[in-house]
Design a protein that fits this description.
Length: 271
C-alpha cells in the first residue's frame, strides 16, 4: 500500500522507515528550518553589542539547529544544510529528486533569512553600510579571516567539520531516521563546538546555504571566496556519506521458532 502524499521519487530502500509526508511539506519544513537557523547563526553575531555579554553566537546557532530539528525533524528529517542532504544521498537514505529539492529549499530559506536581517539593518540609523556589517559575519580566508588563515586551512577545516557533522547526524539518526530527538541534540552540540572553532579561522559555517546567504548581502570579496565554503563542506559530506554507505547493514534477530521473512517483501520508503 502506498503512503498518501508520496510518489515514486520518495521510494526508499528495504529496511528504512516509511515517509509520512509528501515532498511539498518536507520542502517547506526545510526552507523554514533553514530560515530560522540563519536568523540565529547570522543575526546573533550581527547584532551583538561588544560591551554586553550575549549568548555566544556558536551556541546560539547550535541551539537553533536543535530546536529546528525537534520542530521539523519528524516532517523532513531536519537537514537544513545541503551538506547534510548530500551525505544522506550518498549514504542511500534519500532519493536524488528529493535531495535536489531539499538543497533548493534550504538555499531559498537561507537567503530569505539573510534578507530579513539585511532589511532590519537598513532601518538602523547608526549603520551607514549594511554590506560592511554583513562582512563581519561572512566566511572568509586570508585578509578576511580574524587570524588571516590561508585558503588551505579554511578548506581543510571546512571539509573536516562538515564530515564530522554529517557523520554525527547519520550515526545518531539511525538508518531509518527514527532517532530524531537524539540526532537533534548530537548535531546541535556538534555545530556549537565546531562553529566556535570555525569562528576564529574565518566564520566557517559548515553549511553552503548559510555561506551563500551571507555572501549575497556582503561586499564583493565574499562572493569571490564563496566557492571555498561551498565546496569544502560538500567534499566532507561526500566522504562521510560514502563511509556510511559502505558500512554493513545490521542483521535483524529472528526467533528460532519463527521463519525468516521472504526476500521479496515490498520495499519501504525513503524520505
Amino acid at each position: 500500500m502506498s503512503m498518501p502524499g508520496t510518489d515514486r521519487h520518495d521510494t526508499l530502500l528495504p529496511g528504512t522507515a516509511p515517509a509520512e509526508y509528501g515532498l511539498a511539506p518536507r520542502l517547506a519544513a526545510e526552507a523554514f528550518g533553514t530560515l530560522f537557523l540563519v536568523l540565529a547563526a547570522v543575526g546573533v553575531p550581527l547584532f551583538t553589542i561588544p560591551q554586553s555579554s550575549p549568548l555566544p553566537a556558536p551556541l546560539a546557532a547550535g541551539l537553533a539547529v536543535t530546536a529546528a530539528m525537534l520542530a521539523f525533524g519528524h516532517v523532513s528529517g531536519g537537514h537544513f544544510n545541503p551538506a547534510i542532504t548530500l551525505g544522506h544521498l550518498l549514504a542511500g537514505r534519500i532519493r536524488t529528486v528529493a535531495a535536489a529539492g531539499y538543497a533548493a529549499a534550504q538555499l531559498a530559506g537561507a537567503v530569505a533569512g539573510a534578507l530579513v536581517l539585511y532589511g532590519v539593518l537598513r532601518t538602523l540609523p547608526g549603520i551607514a553600510d549594511s554590506r560592511t556589517a554583513f562582512d563581519t559575519v561572512s566566511p572568509g580566508y586570508g585578509a578576511h579571516s580574524i587570524i588571516e588563515a590561508p585558503l588551505a586551512a579554511a578548506f581543510l577545516l571546512g571539509m573536516l567539520g562538515a564530515a564530522v557533522i554529517v557523520a554525527v547526524f547519520l550515526g545518531a539518526a539511525g538508518r531509518d531516521n527514527s532517532n530524531t530527538a537524539a540526532a537533534a541534540l548530537a548535531v546541535g552540540l556538534s555545530f556549537a563546538v565546531l562553529l566556535q572553532l570555525g569562528q576564529a579561522i574565518g566564520n566557517l559555517p559548515f553549511n553552503p546555504a548559510r555561506a551563500a546567504a551571507s555572501a549575497v548581502f556582503s561586499s564583493a570579496w565574499a562572493m569571490e571566496q564563496l566557492w571555498v565554503f561551498v565546496l569544502a563542506p560538500l567534499a566532507g559530506a561526500a566522504i562521510a556519506g560514502l563511509v556510511f554507505r559502505a558500512l554493513p547493514s545490521p542483521l535483524a534477530a529472528v526467533p528460532e521458532d519463527e521463519p525468516a521473512a521472504p526476500a521479496d517483501l515490498p520495499a519501504a520508503r525513503l524520505p
